[in-house]
Amino acid sequence: MTFVVILLYKGVIIPQRQLFRFLIIIIGLILLAAPILSADSLDVATDSVQDVAGQIITDSVETTTSTEEVAEDSGWGYRTERNNALFLMVLFSVVILVYTRWAKQGKELFLRKINGLDEVEEAVGRATEMGRPVLFVPGLQELDEIETIAAISILGRVARITARYDTPLMVPVRYPLVLAAGQEVVQQAYIEEGKPDAYNVDMVRYVAGEQFAFTATVNGYMMRERPATNIFMGAFFAESLLLAETGNAAGSIQIAGTAQPSQLPFFIAACDYTLMGEELYAASAYLSREPLLLGGLKGQDFIKILLIAAILIGVLIVSLDIEAIAELYKSLFVSV
Amino acid sequence: MRTIVPVIIAFLSGMVMILAFFFDPEKSILGELEQNVLSWVTIVGGFTLLLGVVSIFRVNLIAVKRRHDGWGYKLVTLISILAMAIPAIIPSKLSPLFGTGTDSIYDWLFNYLDAPMMATMFAMLAFYISSAAFRAFRARNTEATLLLIAATLVMLWRVPMGEIALAYIHPDLPQAINTYIMGGINMAVQRGIIIGAALGAAAMSLRILLGIERTYLGK
Q1: What is the ipTM of this complex?
Q2: How confident is the model over B132-165, as pLDDT tens digits?
Q3: Are residues A149 and A240 in the same domain?
Q4: What is the pLDDT of residues B115-124, one digit of tens each?
Q5: Do A269 and B132 touch (CB under 8 A)?
């Protein structure tokens, strides 16, 4: 495996510029091969339609049993009951890749304005003028969470701006893995801005592993150092309001972003700008304005339109009270 | 090379996790591979723990040495780390006070210092909610007024005395608030945000998996 990877990297098997396309083809083949090889998977949907037509509503337990039997028949453990998830995943991937390709070809893509992200540079500028630091909190979850990865990506962009303006930056983290990734990203940002000497390893620091010990440390920092700008990005829980209210009391301009719906009201109440849900994941692409990343965002919007259409169709079917079609429609989206 | 290798590792690890979702872990090699990848996360995390300890020690020690503002707090932090760590590391064979068992120093510090302090921090949330609500619920414009009315109704419905008062107006009023505000408007908006966030997460995962997004590497 390692040998093959090295050959791929060196461009021996495939030219390097073709590597990306090759990877996509491989993914597509792997994903498509499974359901094709176990063609019995379609039997499940057909059975449920026949049952409904005969006024017998298919019991979900029976459906599960029949799919398990099919999985056993296929002999290699493919879960046919997850075909719908596979289909949606392939569709989603294809749409994203098509939009990415269009973006790469130079097609102009419209992006709506996100005020919170537009204000990042201005907020850092404010900190520079006031001679006070910028505080960036990349959430309270581990690096294996996509929200934390999104936060680390945004940190890279913010660090570039602080490096450009020579503004002090403070990044408290809760997990050592986030510490390592954060230090790497911030250092890289300072190097790319041509100011490697301005980078200090303690800009990103581990403060505490406990949720509220972390909060107490960050709140203490905010009250003592009075950062001009607080940026909270990533996954936050009960501490969201403790952090945001303290920042508000300290007179900082605050920008927050999270995908946790239960914490959004707190940030909206206490922060100047809030990125909601998907805006957090769009932030790195929005700030970088790289066509390749923006293509992914447009693809995401396209899928959202499809999902809205699917929801409207579902509402219509349920409203018309056609039980047979409703059950069939539901089976398309329910994955075991 | 510093970019290519992490991207390849991310691609292979991600593909293992995706494919494992579609296959029975007991019938294919993917189940075992998935567990191996997860074990590697734990192993790498274990190694980086040392980085965390070094970071917290260095930052606080420098602040104490140079008498920075609030150096006394940092001294307390250093003493606390040592007070928790040293007795926990010493084997409990020497004394029941050592190790992490019941009635050990570590256990005592955790139960009688750490846990109450965490609970205190959490309890303070009530006051923070009050001050945030006071600011948010000012009827400055139409939207804020709607928010104020909705919040007042929900708060009345949530507290027993308010529920009785609402039921006095109309017996079905508390249930109607639950149905139309919490189960209707609130739920619809939350689900919209969740669907959007899930799509955003999936799109970002795909970008990372295919090496399109490398910003997490500082690129």
Answers
A1: 0.90
A2: 988 888 888 898 899 899 999 998 888 999 989 9
A3: yes
A4: 999 999 999 9
A5: yes
Q: Which residues contact A167 (CB under 8 A, 6 or more apart)?
A: A124, A127, A128, A133, A134, A161
User: Which alpha helices (H) appear in chain B, and where do they start and end?
Assistant: 4-22, 29-65, 71-89, 105-109, 115-123, 125-136, 142-158, 160-169, 173-177, 187-209
The string of DSSP letters for B195-216 reads HHHHHHHHHHHHHHHTTS--GG
A26 lies in some domain: no
Alpha helices in A132-250 (DSSP H): 146-165, 176-192, 211-225, 239-249
> What CATH number is given to the structural domain containing A136?
3.40.50
Q: For residue A232, what are the CA distances in angstroms to A12, A224, A243, A289, B51?
A: 45, 18, 9, 21, 23
A209, A229, A257, A321: which is closest to B110 by C-alpha? A209
Residue at A307 is within a domain: yes
Same domain (yes/no): A159, A241 = yes
Contact pairs from chain A to chain B, CB under 8 Å:
206
Helix (H) / strand (E) element for A74: namely helix A60-74
Amino acid making up residue A135: L
Residue A27 lies in a domain: no
Chain A residue with minimum CA distance to B136: A269
Sign of the CA dihedral A74, A77, A82, A88?
negative
Count of domains observed in chain A: 2
Structural domain spans, chain B: 1-68, 127-217
In this complex, the residue of B18, B124, B197 whose CB is nearest that of residue A277 is B197
Report the distance separating Cα B81 and Cα B53, nearest Å: 9
Residues of A with Cβ-Cβ distance to B4 under 8 angstroms: 9
- The predicted pLDDT at position A25 comes to 60
Domain containing A154: what range?
115-288
What are the tens digits of pLDDT across the range A217-270? Answer: 999 999 999 999 999 999 999 999 999 999 999 999 999 999 999 999 999 999
Residue with tokens 């414009």: B141
Q: Are B132 and A245 an interchain contact pair (Cβ–Cβ within 8 Å)?
A: yes
Residue stretches of chain A with pLDDT short of 70: 1-76, 336
Q: Note whether B22 contacts A86, CB cutoff 8 Å.
A: yes
pLDDT tens column, B33-84: 999 999 998 998 888 888 899 999 999 999 999 998 889 999 999 999 999 9
Quote the tokens at residue A61.
């337990």
Contacting residues for B188 by C-beta, under 8 A, at least 6 apart: none
Decide if A300 and B18 are in contact by the 8 Å CB cutoff: no
Q: What is the pLDDT of residue B210?
A: 86
Location of structure tokens 């098997």: A13
- For residues A41-70, one letter each, b for 16 or more C-beta atoms within 10 angstroms of the residue's C-beta and e for the rest, the string is beebeeebeebbeeeeebeeeebeebbeeb
Query: Considering the domain boundaries, does residue A186 fall inside one?
Result: yes
CA A46, A50, A52: angle at the middle one, nearest 5?
A: 115
